């Protein structure tokens, strides 16, 4: 099968500035960060301190400024463990953004007695508005959670979290795997990098990506068990894989999060996972996708709370 050849660039040659500018010129605003995300933050001010941790200035690229906000528990106490929930690292992955907000709105109150909560619902607002994986510089934020980050989206949040000088006990990062990963984003990445793209089979259903250096299988299972109440779990393909990775357990594959610069690897949290919802499934509605994200967070926090309770008993 011939690899999909992207329409920008020359096959085998990495993009230069001209190709990046050609790609950027094709991007259009398709929805509103202000209307869809920021408008909801005021409704949460009774439960959370709404903290601006930075701003993205993309005026030079022909767009605008994007203030970056997170939600921080009002009853923050030094003796409570920190649970970090992140969404919208890839702005086009819609249910991650709205799953984080829905958890904050409908479920967070059940956990603030046991955890300090930090929720960053939309890390890449330009990507949210233009339905993109990258930022305007053609950089993937979810390979950029490293020191001296090449993506401000990643660097600003990483700097804020590390400055707290508190290692989260839990970090759940909310993502999607979409059909556009094969039709647009993976071919674009191969073109940008001057490599050959080979598409993978898009899993039909929900799955998790644990940390291969710290897999925590019981934690992953607790989330899968909660999500299955809402939507279906992705089966492995004919090779026993999901997205090209061997299945570690039902509904779970593992990646080396730190070495890849993934959001889930930016701290030394003990319990870490990345959710992956499939919004293009004929068996899942947009609302189910949001509820699956919420269920994963609920399942994960319930598991950790039970572990803490058993340890203190």
TrEMBL record:
One of its GO terms (molecular function) is zinc ion binding. Keywords: Carboxypeptidase, Hydrolase, Protease. GO terms for biological process: proteolysis. Residues 29-313 form the Peptidase M14 domain. SUPFAM superfamilies: Zn-dependent exopeptidases. The keyword Protease applies. Belongs to the peptidase M14 family. This is Deacylase/carboxypeptidase superfamily protein. The lineage of its organism: Bacteria, Pseudomonadati, Pseudomonadota, Gammaproteobacteria, Alteromonadales.
């Amino acid at each position: 099968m011939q690899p999909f050849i992207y329409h920008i660039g020359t096959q085998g040659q990495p993009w230069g500035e001209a190709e990046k500018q050609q790609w950027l010129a094709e991007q259009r605003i398709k929805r509103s960060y202000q209307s869809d995300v920021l408008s909801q933050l005021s409704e949460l001010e009774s439960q959370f301190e709404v903290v601006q941790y930075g701003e993205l200035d993309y005026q030079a690229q022909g767009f605008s400024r994007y203030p970056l906000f997170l939600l921080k528990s009002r009853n923050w106490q030094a003796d409570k463990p920190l649970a970090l929930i992140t969404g919208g690292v890839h702005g086009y992955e819609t249910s991650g953004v709205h799953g984080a907000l829905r958890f904050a709105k409908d479920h967070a109150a059940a956990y603030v007695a046991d955890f300090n909560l930090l929720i960053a619902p939309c890390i890449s607002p330009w990507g949210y508005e233009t339905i993109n994986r990258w930022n305007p510089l053609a950089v993937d934020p979810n390979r950029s959670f490293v020191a001296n980050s090449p993506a401000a989206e990643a660097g600003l949040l990483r700097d804020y979290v590390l400055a707290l000088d508190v290692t989260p006990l839990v970090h759940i990062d909310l993502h999607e795997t979409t059909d556009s990963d094969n039709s647009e984003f993976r071919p674009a990445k191969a073109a940008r990098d001057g490599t050959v793209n080979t598409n993978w089979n898009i899993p039909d259903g929900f799955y998790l990506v644990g940390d291969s250096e710290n897999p925590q299988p019981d934690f992953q299972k607790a989330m899968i068990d909660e999500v299955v109440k809402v939507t279906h779990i992705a089966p492995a393909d004919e090779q026993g894989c999901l997205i090209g990775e061997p299945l570690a357990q039902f509904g779970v594959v593992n990646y080396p999060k730190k070495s890849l610069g993934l959001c889930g690897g930016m701290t030394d949290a003990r319990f870490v996972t990345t959710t992956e919802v499939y919004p293009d499934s004929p068996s899942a509605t947009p609302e189910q996708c949001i509820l699956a994200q919420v269920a994963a967070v609920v399942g994960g926090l319930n598991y950790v709370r039970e572990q803490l309770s058993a340890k203190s008993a």
